[in-house]
Amino acid sequence: GENVEQHPSTLSVQEGDSAVIKCTYSDSASNYFPWYKQELGKRPQLIIDIRSNVGEKKDQRIAVTLNKTAKHFSLHITETQPEDSAVYFCAASIRGGSYIPTFGRGTSLIVHP
Amino acid sequence: ETGVTQTPRHLVMGMTNKKSLKCEQHLGHNAMYWYKQSAKKPLELMFVYNFKEQTENNSVPSRFSPECPNSSHLFLHLHTLQPEDSALYLCASSLSRTEDYGYTFGSGTRLTVV
Asked: pLDDT of B13-36, one tens digit each?
């Protein structure tokens, strides 16, 4: 089955800095890669996703890049703010088989004011 | 609220108790899911329902019993649980199980087994 590795497990930055979270996946058939943000005590929320037919997608301060050859994708947050502090999960789902996503272990992002 | 409502938000139960978790969505989604979230672990898929039919049972112990009476409601019946079952149980829904759209999660039920 699919295996998703996520790094780092914890990321601490100063307000205004950029943050990058990286995920790798094992199955080259995966074609959908969502990112979820889970604030403390709250539910995970989809913040951005990317499909394998594009290499990059941007939404205001967040962007996701995908390298199909290397089988890795990354979440980029620019001009971080304290409200960006949360656990971020990446996921990958496999085309043609199960569409159930495999989640990474999560990255705890802490943005210091 | 998000469109996916879970009750109760918190539950403390003894190992011999029987309780049920409830999930409800009115988003017009046809697929619903139960996930277990434990500290320091990835989200663990438990069950998947698509159009009320169970399509996945991820080797979950029989002390967890799901029920999906219709596409809008999902239950997780619990009995004779173990302390290691303490976790956040998340319900999610999506438009369809066979399309790669993102999930909408509920706020979860924080379960403590004593």
From this structure: 999 899 999 999 999 999 999 999
